[in-house]
């Protein structure tokens, strides 16, 4: 820790003199000043005991980074290092005092989703915005659902993003406008931010999402099915019940739409599952309630996530459903009626990838 209590006054480790009277501001137990030549000065509990907010074992990256972040965010208001919040038994790495306070958390050590959610909920309980910045350990990880679920949040001008603090450069590395393309592949842009003004300005670049290669995606699905990839097995088993092959989904289901990174195996796979169910209901009126149920069941089957740590997928799933029905309507596969939609003509599935490839080559010439 960087802050200790002596004679009822808070003192920063960098300004502290060696004595035996320092105690932890949270638990009042004795802490010892460590002030070497190679490490930043810090306090550590003499006996850890039952301190609810102890951060023993923090790395030099964490110690140095907290000081850097205190300097970085001071343009938003007075910054307090390691502010104790007894109401929720938490200690904010940096506390920015403003109309709507900000708690800056510099996370360098392992932490699970439940712990992150608990700390985030604690700050929200106090009406505080938690700003999570990740250290080197997390910066080396591949961008995937584990990081997104725990730490991603919407930021004005940057979309859904992850923030990493680079101690060496003293800058924020922003992984921003996180998305999934229709094949389920994660995408994002990266920007370096060196000041609060740049952070507040938002992204100034034009963003472009490359189109997906549908033929390659079909081939990849086929290869994964041949290898009996566990994640695809329940999907193919579901389609077998309707006489379909996952890699042979109709051209009418193809889309270049992108989504928030919530769709598990991806939007195309979701459309294949939900589309098979929709066209098994020939003769029925497809009501919004029916479509909503099918959309949610398909979403769960492909490993989708309706709720992440700091954002929801409910609106995104509803948008995907609307877009799918709009595309099917344009293709003439369904028609709009008073109470919903009716099937007009079922799109053609290929029996497998090889059959689809032969048919596609015939169309090309």
From TrEMBL:
Residues 18-53 form the Competence protein CoiA-like N-terminal domain. It holds the Pfam family CoiA_nuc. Residues 58-180 form the Competence protein CoiA nuclease-like domain. InterPro entries: CoiA-like_N, CoiA_nuc. Transmembrane segments: none annotated. This is Competence protein. It comes from Levilactobacillus koreensis.
């Amino acid at each position: 820790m960087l802050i200790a209590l002596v004679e009822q006054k808070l003192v920063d480790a960098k300004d502290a003199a060696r004595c035996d009277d320092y105690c932890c501001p949270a638990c009042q137990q004795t802490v010892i000043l460590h002030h070497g030549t190679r490490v930043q000065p810090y306090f550590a509990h003499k006996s850890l005991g039952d301190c609810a907010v102890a951060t023993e074992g923090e790395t030099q990256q964490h110690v140095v980074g907290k000081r850097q972040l205190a300097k970085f965010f001071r343009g938003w208001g007075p910054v307090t290092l390691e502010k104790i919040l007894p109401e929720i038994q938490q200690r904010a790495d940096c506390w920015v005092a403003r109309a709507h306070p900000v708690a800056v958390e510099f996370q360098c050590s392992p932490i699970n989703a439940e712990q992150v959610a608990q700390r985030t909920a604690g700050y929200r309980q106090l009406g505080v915005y938690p700003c999570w910045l990740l250290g080197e350990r997390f910066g080396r990880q591949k961008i995937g659902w584990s990081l997104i679920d725990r730490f991603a949040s919407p930021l004005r001008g940057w979309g859904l993003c992850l923030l990493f603090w680079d101690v060496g450069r003293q800058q924020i590395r922003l992984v921003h406008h996180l998305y999934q393309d229709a094949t389920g592949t994660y995408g994002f842009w990266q920007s370096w931010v060196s000041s609060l003004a740049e952070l507040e300005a938002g992204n100034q670049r034009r963003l472009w999402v490359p189109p997906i290669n549908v033929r390659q995606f079909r081939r990849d699905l086929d290869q994964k099915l041949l290898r009996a990839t566990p994640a695809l097995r329940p999907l193919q088993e579901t389609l077998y019940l309707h006489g379909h092959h996952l890699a042979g989904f109709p051209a009418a289901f193809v889309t270049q739409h992108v989504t928030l990174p919530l769709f598990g195996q991806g939007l195309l796979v979701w459309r294949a599952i939900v589309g098979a169910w929709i066209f098994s209901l020939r003769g029925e009126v497809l009501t919004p309630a029916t479509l909503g149920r099918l959309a949610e069941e398909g979403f769960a089957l492909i490993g989708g996530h309706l709720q992440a740590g700091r954002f929801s997928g409910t609106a995104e799933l509803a948008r995907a459903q609307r877009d799918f029905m709009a595309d099917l309507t344009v293709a003439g596969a369904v028609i709009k009626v008073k109470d919903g939609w009716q099937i007009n003509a079922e799109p053609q599935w290929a029996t497998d990838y090889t059959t689809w490839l032969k048919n596609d080559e015939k169309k090309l010439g």
